[in-house]
């Protein structure tokens, strides 16, 4: 049995993780912690893998503390930058388990979203234009989403590898209506009551368009990915920091 602790256990996502762990035949729930609780209660004597689902403003500090405690960590909180990831790698290198610590961060745990991201990187080299639209509920605190940023980076790298130039855009605007530019790719964020988590990737050539869309209608859609990540960290996942569920899907 894999002993799993959950940080952010009372949150919208954390409560689903608690239910998913309780429903898994190969896992047992160890500790459930939330805002204000002492993370140093979690250590290798009571926990094999921690699942951290909180908010971007506290997630980095939580992860660094958990690394110092020597436990492996699955992170679902978004808002990660290259600078924050570098701090995680440094913490692992200087932590109590530099040779076998495992930390996993996923921009998205929905299988549909991970596959859409993967398909987008495969399609990007064949199209002159590309844009990303992400749509979420209005309670989401970051924009654009970590998933959309990850998708844009993947598209940009695929275009670079294919020798493509800049995406054509002669629009003149100073009002921000063209979205945030991530690696040369315009990313648009929609916040609308009634939505959960959705992403569209639009590709265009003269006379044709390809749309790749992933829809998660309920937070339960993320749980198979979370449990997969927990099992991988308890098993054969590589040591160090891994980013992206695609690394565990045999793509």
UniProtKB/TrEMBL annotation:
<comment type="pathway">
    <text>Amino-acid biosynthesis; L-lysine biosynthesis via DAP pathway; (S)-tetrahydrodipicolinate from L-aspartate: step 4/4.</text>
</comment>
<keyword id="KW-0520">NAD</keyword>
<dbReference type="GO" id="GO:0008839">
    <property type="term" value="F:4-hydroxy-tetrahydrodipicolinate reductase"/>
</dbReference>
<keyword id="KW-0963">Cytoplasm</keyword>
<feature type="active site" description="Proton donor">
    <location>
        <position position="140"/>
    </location>
</feature>
<dbReference type="InterPro" id="IPR023940">
    <property type="entry name" value="DHDPR_bac"/>
</dbReference>
<keyword id="KW-0521">NADP</keyword>
<dbReference type="InterPro" id="IPR036291">
    <property type="entry name" value="NAD(P)-bd_dom_sf"/>
</dbReference>
<dbReference type="Pfam" id="PF05173">
    <property type="entry name" value="DapB_C"/>
</dbReference>
<feature type="binding site">
    <location>
        <begin position="106"/>
        <end position="109"/>
    </location>
    <ligand>
        <name>NAD(+)</name>
    </ligand>
</feature>
<dbReference type="GO" id="GO:0019877">
    <property type="term" value="P:diaminopimelate biosynthetic process"/>
</dbReference>
<keyword id="KW-0457">Lysine biosynthesis</keyword>
<feature type="binding site">
    <location>
        <position position="137"/>
    </location>
    <ligand>
        <name>(S)-2,3,4,5-tetrahydrodipicolinate</name>
    </ligand>
</feature>
<feature type="binding site">
    <location>
        <begin position="76"/>
        <end position="78"/>
    </location>
    <ligand>
        <name>NAD(+)</name>
    </ligand>
</feature>
<comment type="subunit">
    <text>Homotetramer.</text>
</comment>
<feature type="binding site">
    <location>
        <begin position="146"/>
        <end position="147"/>
    </location>
    <ligand>
        <name>(S)-2,3,4,5-tetrahydrodipicolinate</name>
    </ligand>
</feature>
<dbReference type="InterPro" id="IPR022663">
    <property type="entry name" value="DapB_C"/>
</dbReference>
<dbReference type="InterPro" id="IPR022664">
    <property type="entry name" value="DapB_N_CS"/>
</dbReference>
<dbReference type="GO" id="GO:0016726">
    <property type="term" value="F:oxidoreductase activity, acting on CH or CH2 groups, NAD or NADP as acceptor"/>
</dbReference>
<dbReference type="GO" id="GO:0005829">
    <property type="term" value="C:cytosol"/>
</dbReference>
<comment type="similarity">
    <text>Belongs to the DapB family.</text>
</comment>
<dbReference type="Pfam" id="PF01113">
    <property type="entry name" value="DapB_N"/>
</dbReference>
<keyword id="KW-0560">Oxidoreductase</keyword>
<feature type="binding site">
    <location>
        <begin position="8"/>
        <end position="13"/>
    </location>
    <ligand>
        <name>NAD(+)</name>
    </ligand>
</feature>
<dbReference type="GO" id="GO:0050661">
    <property type="term" value="F:NADP binding"/>
</dbReference>
<dbReference type="GO" id="GO:0051287">
    <property type="term" value="F:NAD binding"/>
</dbReference>
<comment type="function">
    <text>Catalyzes the conversion of 4-hydroxy-tetrahydrodipicolinate (HTPA) to tetrahydrodipicolinate.</text>
</comment>
<keyword id="KW-0028">Amino-acid biosynthesis</keyword>
<dbReference type="GO" id="GO:0009089">
    <property type="term" value="P:lysine biosynthetic process via diaminopimelate"/>
</dbReference>
<protein>
    <recommendedName>
        <fullName>4-hydroxy-tetrahydrodipicolinate reductase</fullName>
        <ecNumber>1.17.1.8</ecNumber>
    </recommendedName>
</protein>
<keyword id="KW-0220">Diaminopimelate biosynthesis</keyword>
<feature type="binding site">
    <location>
        <position position="37"/>
    </location>
    <ligand>
        <name>NAD(+)</name>
    </ligand>
</feature>
<feature type="active site" description="Proton donor/acceptor">
    <location>
        <position position="136"/>
    </location>
</feature>
<dbReference type="InterPro" id="IPR000846">
    <property type="entry name" value="DapB_N"/>
</dbReference>
<feature type="domain" description="Dihydrodipicolinate reductase C-terminal">
    <location>
        <begin position="114"/>
        <end position="248"/>
    </location>
</feature>
<feature type="domain" description="Dihydrodipicolinate reductase N-terminal">
    <location>
        <begin position="2"/>
        <end position="109"/>
    </location>
</feature>
């Amino acid at each position: 049995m894999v002993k799993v602790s959950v940080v952010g256990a009372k949150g919208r996502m954390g409560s689903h993780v608690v239910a998913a762990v309780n429903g898994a035949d190969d896992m047992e729930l160890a500790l459930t912690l939330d805002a204000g609780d002492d993370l140093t209660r979690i250590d290798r004597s009571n926990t094999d893998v921690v699942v951290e689902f909180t908010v971007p403003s506290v997630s980095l500090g939580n992860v660094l503390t958990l690394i110092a405690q020597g436990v492996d960590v699955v992170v679902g909180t978004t808002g990660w930058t290259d600078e924050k990831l570098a701090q995680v790698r440094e913490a692992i290198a200087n932590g109590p388990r530099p040779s076998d610590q495992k930390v996993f961060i996923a921009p998205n745990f929905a299988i549909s979203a991970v596959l859409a991201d993967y398909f987008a990187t495969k399609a990007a080299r064949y199209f002159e234009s590309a844009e990303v639209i992400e749509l979420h509920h209005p309670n989401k605190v970051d924009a654009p989403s970590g998933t959309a940023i990850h998708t844009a980076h993947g598209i940009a790298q695929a275009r670079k590898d294919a020798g493509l130039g800049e995406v054509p855009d002669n629009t003149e605007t100073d009002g921000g209506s063209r979205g945030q530019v991530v690696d040369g790719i315009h990313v648009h964020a929609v916040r609308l009551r009634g939505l959960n988590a959705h992403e569209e990737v639009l590709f265009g050539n003269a006379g044709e368009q390809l749309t790749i869309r992933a829809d998660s209608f309920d937070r339960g859609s993320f749980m198979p990915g979370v449990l997969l990540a927990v099992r991988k960290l308890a098993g054969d996942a590589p040591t160090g920091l891994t980013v992206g569920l695609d690394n565990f899907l045999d793509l």
